[in-house]
């Protein structure tokens, strides 16, 4: 990427960007704002943009209403396992596609890419039956196992291996008598560590934010993930916005934290993953 | 080494999808199991089901209202970001932020923003003298509100994808156009858009698939009605996936729900192909 582009930007461009940025951040700030007030303050004709003093009361109510700690833990376990597994299995498959010659490799890779077009949402009924047959309803593995590896991870890590794992190194290791797995672990994996880290973050965030499948396969009243617990907060007889948005503010903290720490890499990752024109 | 992928995909991806077709040909109850083969009866019933057509209409309306503004806004935003900016990484991260927030959290915040009595949107409208809108009760209003969530969440993401494509357009093309005295808008339509055509097609297809499967945004938009999943009292914002969920997991009619799933799959296919054709024509002009 070059430092100078074809045009320099004037104040109007910056003003526009500031407006867009405010629009991006406002709903987040707003949910924190409501989370810090008590419900009666919501009736003000013009809502005040200054936080109130009820944050801790509201958070306490969240933990009284649903077992939010347990939900956070569950989400951590789900997203953590899914991320690690996608990194390991995705890199294995990506390495195989990028650096090992085997019959039908190219067409198998096309199949992998093709599978990302299959909308998994549409198979939920049999998937649910399958989970019941396995006696997995209400357990975390029902959420974890189907997400252990995805086409995106394979695709992404194949690209990473193409870029960062030199052919010569792989061949040298093989000549020295390294097994395929040893070559993978000692030569390929260290070379793609940065890309693997970005990918791990992506999959962590996706798994953390997932709602539809956990809603179906977990018992909302027992031990769901954070997102499902949020919907439980929302489904009370009357709509308690301070309660709901306190929960929502808590649920976005981990991903927003990760995002702020790794924004540069994640943005770069999305731009790299895009189809170039 | 690639076996784990195919095992997981086969068991938890492909098998359920194909099995859905089989289930859809039966009177199949989620709890009681298979009640017998009925052929295409579920599909026939679907065609005369007003709720189904309503959900289909809502889905298409929400999809159009969210995808079109989102992609145009993303193109504009990408052009803005493609200029020489100070603090480039900061702006890029800023526009992507909405995308990392979970849909569930977004839906709850927007449900509040679009509240009838105490919502910020109505408060702002009041400032310019517009009467409060009942965002949940009216079809158009609810569709606008729900689409705004989708637009908010995905515009920045698509802008970054466009930006990546724009940066690989050769610079001398711009320079010679500028020398010829072309206006900025003309350069945008005649050089930028045609150059990033494959990327535009890609985003159109991806957002079509996403848009046709809208679920969480409308489901949580009416927090009080979340439990019923009907998308408002008159189903004014019930989408196809919500209807699938209602039939399958609220009323336990797995056969009927599976028929909805397959019809939805076909609709997605048709809309994606139509979109592809239209976008290709639009993008090749100029």
From TrEMBL, chain A:
The keyword Mitochondrion does not apply. The chain crosses the membrane at residues 12-32, 76-96, 108-130, 136-157, 196-216, 241-263. Signal peptide: none annotated. One of its GO terms (cellular component) is plasma membrane. The keyword Membrane applies. Residues 72-262 form the ABC transmembrane type-1 domain. InterPro entries: MetI-like, MetI-like_sf. One of its GO terms (biological process) is transmembrane transport. PROSITE patterns: ABC_TM1 (PS50928). It is a multi-pass membrane protein. Keywords: Cell membrane, Membrane, Transmembrane, Transmembrane helix, Transport. CDD domains: TM_PBP2. It is found in: Cell membrane. Its main location: membrane. SUPFAM superfamilies: MetI-like (SSF161098). Belongs to the binding-protein-dependent transport system permease family. This is Cellobiose transport system permease protein. It comes from Saccharothrix texasensis. The lineage of its organism: Bacteria, Bacillati, Actinomycetota, Actinomycetes, Pseudonocardiales.
């Amino acid at each position: 990427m070059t430092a100078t582009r074809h045009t320099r930007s004037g104040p109007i461009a910056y003003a526009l960007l500031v407006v867009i940025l405010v629009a991006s951040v406002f709903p987040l700030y707003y949910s924190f704002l409501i989370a810090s007030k008590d419900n009666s303050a919501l009736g003000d004709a013009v809502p005040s943009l200054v936080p109130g003093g009820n944050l801790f009361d509201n958070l306490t109510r969240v933990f009284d209403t649903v077992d939010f700690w347990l939900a956070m833990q569950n989400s951590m376990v789900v997203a953590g396992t899914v991320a690690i597994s996608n990194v390991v299995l995705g890199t294995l498959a990506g390495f195989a596609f990028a650096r090992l010659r085997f019959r039908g490799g190219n067409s198998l890779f096309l199949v992998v890419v093709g599978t990302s077009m299959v909308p998994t949402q549409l198979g939920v009924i049999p998937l649910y039956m399958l989970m019941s047959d396995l006696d997995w309803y209400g357990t975390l593995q029902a959420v974890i196992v189907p997400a252990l590896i995805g086409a995106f991870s394979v695709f992404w890590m194949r690209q990473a291996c193409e870029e960062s794992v030199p052919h010569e190194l792989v061949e040298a290791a093989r000549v020295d008598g390294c097994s395929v797995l040893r070559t993978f672990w000692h030569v390929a994996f260290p070379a793609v560590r940065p890309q693997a880290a970005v990918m791990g973050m992506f999959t962590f965030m996706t798994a953390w934010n997932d709602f539809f499948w956990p809603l179906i396969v977990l018992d909302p009243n027992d031990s769901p993930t954070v997102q499902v617990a949020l919907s439980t907060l929302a489904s009370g007889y009357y709509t308690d916005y301070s309660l709901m948005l306190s929960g929502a503010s808590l649920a976005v903290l981990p991903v927003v934290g990760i995002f702020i720490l790794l924004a540069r890499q994640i943005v770069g990752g999305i731009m790299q993953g895009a189809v170039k024109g | 080494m690639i076996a784990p992928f195919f095992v997981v995909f086969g068991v938890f991806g492909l098998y359920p999808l194909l099995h859905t077709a089989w289930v859809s040909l039966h009177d199949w109850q989620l709890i009681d199991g298979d009640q017998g083969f009925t052929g295409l009866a579920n599909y026939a019933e679907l065609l005369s089901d007003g709720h189904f057509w309503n959900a289909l209409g809502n889905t298409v309306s929400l999809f159009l209202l969210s995808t079109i503004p989102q992609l145009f806004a993303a193109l504009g935003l990408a052009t803005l970001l493609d200029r020489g900016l100070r603090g480039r990484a900061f702006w890029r991260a800023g526009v992507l932020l909405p995308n990392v927030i979970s849909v569930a959290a977004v839906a709850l915040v927007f449900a509040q923003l679009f509240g009838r009595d105490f919502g910020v949107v109505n408060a702002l409208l009041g400032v310019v003298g517009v009467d409060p809108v009942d965002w949940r009760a009216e079809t158009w209003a609810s569709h606008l509100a729900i689409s705004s969530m989708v637009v908010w969440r995905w515009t920045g993401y698509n802008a970054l994808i466009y930006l990546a494509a724009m940066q690989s357009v050769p610079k001398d093309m711009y320079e010679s156009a500028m020398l010829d005295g072309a206006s900025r808008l003309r350069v945008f339509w005649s050089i930028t858009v045609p150059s990033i055509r494959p990327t535009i097609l890609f985003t159109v297809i991806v957002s079509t698939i996403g848009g046709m499967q809208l679920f969480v945004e409308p489901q949580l938009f009416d927090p009080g009605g979340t439990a019923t999943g009907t998308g408002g009292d008159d189903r004014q914002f019930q989408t196809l996936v919500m209807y699938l969920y209602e039939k399958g997991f609220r009323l336990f009619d797995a056969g009927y729900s599976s028929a909805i799933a397959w019809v939805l799959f076909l609709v997605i296919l048709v809309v994606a192909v139509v979109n592809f054709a239209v976008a290709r024509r639009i993008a090749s002009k100029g």
